[in-house]
Amino acid sequence: MIEVKNVTKSFQKKNNKKKIETFLADDNISFTASEGEVLGILGPNGAGKTTLLRMISGIMKPDSGEILIDNMDYQKNNEKIKKNIAFMSGNTKLYKDISPYELLKMCGEYYKVPKDKLEEIIDKIIKRFNMESFAYQRIENLSTGQYQRTCIARCLVHNPQYYILDEATSGLDVISSKTILDFINEEKSKGKCFLYSTHYMEEAENICDNLLLINKGKVIKYGKRDEILKETNTNNIREAFLKLIGESNE
Fold first, then answer.
1. Torsion of the alpha carbons at 164, 169, 174 and 177, rounded to the nearest 10
2. Bridge partners for 14 per DSSP
3. What's the rounded Cα separation, in Å, for the pair 55 and 233?
């Protein structure tokens, strides 16, 4: 289980008068995500989604609050937690001079996947994501969809329990998006847990079990889709989100 308890993260920036001011990227955020669950984290650009996921993945530290993965915190169990997590963002940068196959092999070696099993695992992943036609091409020559499939594929090598995906389908065509969404459903059926950040509201409605709606660093609603629609008296999550933003600004 992933537990996020009252997590806050601030940064400093220059305002229009070129003075330094502090702003909250994430403000007192709490939620849980369990095995076999896809939790959608929804909000516009700048809402705080990426900062939140980076803290949960151990890339950043919160200013306050607590993040527990299977009742463990990063301070005492950093290596153990990260072996059980895969993190991917829509703008993930890969080594351009190697092939997807070489990347998968490198990831497997990094996570100390047994050598006698690694080749079999890579072969299954390549077939799973229909990568046969470009598995040995240089990454810099891949199309956007091929690149994104490679990004996702590298997350599977060490068989993590938790997937943290930030805008995984951003900018992809329908076929590439479907490949990734099908993968999420398959892994979910195996009891894997996903934190799925996106600004595609309709996509999230179809794939997520629970939704965390955030705006300007604050949670504006957390719960199941049908519960949110009922509480807001709306027909879809996009309408609900816009209504909630309006209410928070009144």
1. -20
2. 20
3. 33
